[in-house]
Structure formats: structure tokens, C-alpha cells
Write a structure and sequence with these properties.
Blueprint: H1 14-29, H2 36-43, H3 47-53, H4 57-81, H5 86-98, H6 105-118, H7 122-139, H8 145-165, H9 171-185
């Protein structure tokens, strides 16, 4: 049949690979040095693939940051869903702040880039705001709203301090702070 379009793409993982490449380029070079050419080269796809899947560089960045927020939110949620008790939930929060799996060096670099870009881009700000709400919903599995807000600020802020200071966090201090926040804002009966 001449003139018909194939229903199945010949490279079904290409769009995801491109989005991962965008995040790699942003993490390595920053948003200001992210170009179509760098992304295509990193993804190992023809340059034209980018315009097939995305309206432009802005669309690439928006979708890549949405992917980052989704991935980080899933990990955050999984960590808290595994907790069966309040004490385990507090330990999960400490692990989110101090552990090696959440807020890796690459992720922290991407978060810095996301925050800077969101400050000037309403659509990325909306993605960032949605991520914040999903984080609080995950914390709400174990804690009331006021505690969720305080813990989320702690989870966001302390890793930033770690990166800026270039030193590991004091896990005992983080755990004591988490316990103090929980006990101070919602003492168990």
C-alpha cells in the first residue's frame, strides 16, 4: 500500500532516550549550553528526530524536567510507602536527606538548574509546584499536613546545604531534627 504510514515507530524508545539525553546535557553543561546538536549527539539520534518529537528546545527542557520530577517523586513515594510505622517513616525521611539514592550529585545539579529555569518559566514552575505537592502527599501517608510541610522543606533544603558546603551531612543531627519536627508539631498520644 503506497502512501500509508507505519503504525509502529521503528525506534519506540527514542523519545525517552532523547529526554534522558537532555537531562544528561543539562547536568554536564547547564541549560545555557544545552543545544539541539548536543542533545541529538548524546541520544545517538539524527538531529531531525528532535523536531519530530518536540516543538523546540523549550519543549525539550519542559518535558525533560517533567520526567525528572516524575522520577524523583516516584522514588520519594516508594521510600515512604515502604515504611510501616511512624518511626520507619522518620527513618525514611532521614534516608531521603542523607542517603546516596535520593539527591545524587547529578540529581542535585539538575534540581539547581530546574529551580533557576522555573524562576523564569511559568510552565516549569508549575511542574516544580506539582512536584512539591506530590512530595507532601507522600509524606502525608504518615504525617499530618503541618509536619509534611516542615519535613519537605528539610528534605529539599538540607541536601542543597550539603552540595554547597561539599561535606556529608551529620546523620544523627538530621535524625534528631526530624524527630524534633515530628514530636513538636504532632506529638503522638
Amino acid at each position: 500500500m503506497g502512501g500509508t504510514r507505519r503504525e509502529v515507530p521503528n525506534d519506540p524508545g527514542r523519545k525517552a532516550r532523547i529526554l534522558d539525553a537532555v537531562l544528561d546535557v543539562v547536568a554536564e553543561s547547564g541549560i545555557h549550553k544545552t543545544t539541539h546538536r548536543r542533545v541529538a549527539a548524546r541520544a545517538g539520534v539524527p538531529l531531525g528526530s528532535l523536531t519530530y518529537y518536540f516543538a523546540g528546545l523549550d519543549d525539550l527542557l519542559v518535558q525533560a524536567f517533567a520526567r525528572l520530577a516524575d522520577t524523583m517523586s516516584e522514588h520519594y513515594r516508594d521510600s515512604l510507602e515502604r515504611a510501616a510505622t511512624r518511626a520507619e517513616a522518620e527513618a525514611a525521611v532521614v534516608e531521603l536527606v542523607c542517603g546516596p539514592e535520593y539527591g545524587t550529585s547529578r540529581e542535585m545539579t539538575l534540581i539547581f538548574e530546574l529551580y533557576g529555569y522555573a524562576n523564569h518559566h511559568p510552565q516549569v514552575m508549575a511542574i516544580t509546584r506539582d512536584w512539591l505537592h506530590r512530595s507532601r502527599e507522600s509524606l502525608h501517608l504518615h504525617f499530618p499536613e503541618r509536619v509534611c510541610m516542615a519535613l519537605d522543606v528539610l528534605i529539599e533544603g538540607w541536601p542543597i546545604q550539603r552540595v554547597i558546603e561539599g561535606a556529608p551531612l551529620d546523620r544523627a543531627l538530621v535524625a534528631a531534627t526530624v524527630r524534633a519536627i515530628v514530636a513538636g508539631l504532632d506529638p503522638e498520644p
